[in-house]
């Protein structure tokens, strides 16, 4: 049985699959940080642009395959599939959540950390 996810993480993955970028942005604190593909996005405006760029370029779906707690983070392993080179790809999503909001998200190739 898979561990129950904190509400903002569950909402993040739900919104990613719709996609609903406004709902995704609302999962984060105003000063949250996202690290993805070597880029850092800080705050709602930057996170919104990151998500808008993702959905403009690719159609993706995410299937959660594992959840673990490590060093104060919730690490969600998921298979991401879509119309991009190398699809599908297993990724680890490292979430830090405080007060029911995501404060940090780091996305890396599964098993590399």
TrEMBL record:
InterPro entries to which the protein is assigned, alphabetical: NTF2-like_dom_sf (IPR032710), SnoaL-like (IPR037401)
SUPFAM superfamilies: NTF2-like (SSF54427)
Organism field: Methanosphaerula palustris (strain ATCC BAA-1556 / DSM 19958 / E1-9c)
Entry protein name: SnoaL-like domain-containing protein
Residue ranges of domain SnoaL-like in the record: 10-104
Top-level lineage group: Archaea
Classification via Pfam families: SnoaL_2 (PF12680)
């Amino acid at each position: 049985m898979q561990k129950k996810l904190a509400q903002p993480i569950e909402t993040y993955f739900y919104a990613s699959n719709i996609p609903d970028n406004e709902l995704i942005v609302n999962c984060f604190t105003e000063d949250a940080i996202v690290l993805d593909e070597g880029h850092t996005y800080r705050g709602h405006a930057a996170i919104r642009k990151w998500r808008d760029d993702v959905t403009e370029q690719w159609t993706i779906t995410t299937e959660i395959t594992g959840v673990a707690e490590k060093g104060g983070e919730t690490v969600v392993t998921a298979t991401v599939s879509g119309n991009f080179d190398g699809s599908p790809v297993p990724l680890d999503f490292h979430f830090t959540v405080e007060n029911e909001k995501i404060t940090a998200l780091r996305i890396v190739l599964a098993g590399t950390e």
